[in-house]
Amino acid sequence: MIDKLLISVMAGALTVILFMQLMLCALPFFCRMEFDAICHQYALRMDRAGGMDNKLRLAMIEELQRQGFLIERIEASTSAPYGGDLNLMVKADFPFYRIGSQLTLEEVSISVTYQTNMICRLLKVVAAARWPLWLSLCFVRL
Q: How many CA within 13 A on the CB side of residue 119?
């Protein structure tokens, strides 16, 4: 009777350990997907704005840090002319835990990088100089 109990407890413990190891092994995959999704979202925002300003950069940093990423470097084009290149490169680390050889949790850090190059499709219009009032009155038909 006791032998069945011991076997059941050992099998249960082994099942829990294997399940935890599988979950911890899948964590880098899901973290990479989350990192790529955030970076892609901000690349699209950068494309719509014609570059990455400080406000957009700070929002991206804040969102990545909220997800647990430690940002190493962000390189982004601040502005580009129509048809010019927009570049975005984000490098970050993601710390997570893994079950070690002695069944203890070990902290491991993986490095992730996102890099994209786009063509700027935003045509920036510079405001034209206003005509003086007296000159515009010359073209008015009476």
A: 3
DSSP string, 74-138: EEE-S---TT-EEEEEEEEEEEEEEE-TTS-EEEEEEEEEEEEEEE----PPPPPPPPPHHHHHH
pTM of the predicted structure, to 2 decimals: 0.70
Which residue from 50, 91, 54 is spatially nearest to 74, judged by alpha carbons?
91
Neighbours of 112 (CB within 10 A): 19
Q: What is the pLDDT of residues 24-71, one digit of tens each?
A: 677 778 889 999 999 999 999 998 888 899 999 999 999 999 999 999
CA dist 76 and 78 (Å) reads: 6
